[in-house]
Every structure is written in C-alpha cells, then in structure tokens.
Amino acid sequence: MKAMKQIFVLAMALVWGIAVQAQVDPVNKDGVAIGGYDVVSYFSGEAKQGNKAYAAKHNGVTYYFASKANKATFAQSPSMYLPQFDGYCAWGVGEKQAKFPINPETFDVIDGKLYLFFNGDFNGEPFNTLPDWSARTSELKKAAHTSWPKVKNSK
Fold first, then answer.
1. Residue 142 CA to chain centroid, in angstroms?
2. pLDDT band at 15 (very low <50, low <70, confident <90, very high)
3. How far apart are CA 119 and CA 103, in angstroms?
4. CA of 80: how far to CAs of 73, 112, 146, in Å?
5. Beta partners for 102?
6. Phi, psi values for residue 55, rounded to 5°
7. Where do the H-state alpha helices sit in the chain?
8. Strand, helix or coil at 10?
9. DSSP 8-state code for residue 37
10. pLDDT of 33-88, one tens digit each?
11. Among 100, 84, 85, CA closest to 150
12. Which end of the chain is more exposed for a tag (fewer CB within 10 A), N or C?
C-alpha cells in the first residue's frame, strides 16, 4: 500500500511538472488569461497561480489573482498590469513577427511593462526564448513594438 501511495505521489508530481512547463494561449477557450496566473504578481518578481475566488473581468477577459489585494490593485489600473502584445511571446513578435503561446512562468518586467515568453518543447527540443530576449532586449523590444500592429491583426 505504501508503494502505491509513493507511485501516486510521483505520478502527480510528474504531471504537475509537465503542466507547469506547458505553453498556453494568452486567453484560453474559456476566456481566462495567462493560464490563470496573477498578472499583478509578476511585478513583485514572482509568477503566482491565481485563484478563481479572486477573479475579475477586463475587456471580456477573466483574470485570476492570488489574493484579494492583488485583485484590488488590478481593479485600480488594469492597463498597468496587462502583458504586452496581448500576452503573446514578446520574442516571437519581435524576432519572428508571429504570435507564439507562452509559458506563464517565463517572464520579464521592463520599465514597468510585463513581457511573457515561450519556454517549452519545440520540434522535440527544449526552447526558451527568454535568454535571447535578455541578450538583445533593446533590439527585440523595439522590433516587437514596431511589428505588433501588423502581427496583432494576423491569425
């Protein structure tokens, strides 16, 4: 019985690890943003999973927050906390002029703006766009902001 319990715990840990590394669309089919992560939490340097109990809607999208305080902070000025490029991978917009899904735990906050990144399996290999973004931030940030109006309207 003890062995079964250990196997179950290990299996759950593996599933959780895979889920955490999964890429998500900026807004899922249910209208929830950023895989349910708290957009306010990024500004304290940590990606925190939000809670449905602290949900708020903005422009038809549902955001979850880790605390009542973060929900209230968001409500005061939502635009301050929204990710750039509607939550798509900043590197993808700047380097490839394309919309890539994101890993909600791979992010950067620059000049008070939230940028999210792809970090997962690509063609069978691990691929994290944040290191290249970090090495070329000025160049890629400028390219992304220039490209976004066209990319935003693409499918």
1. 20
2. very low
3. 6
4. 10, 8, 20
5. 24
6. -95, 150
7. 2-21, 68-76, 78-81, 90-95, 130-135, 137-152
8. helix
9. B
10. 999 999 999 999 999 999 999 999 999 999 999 999 999 999 999 999 999 999 99
11. 85
12. C
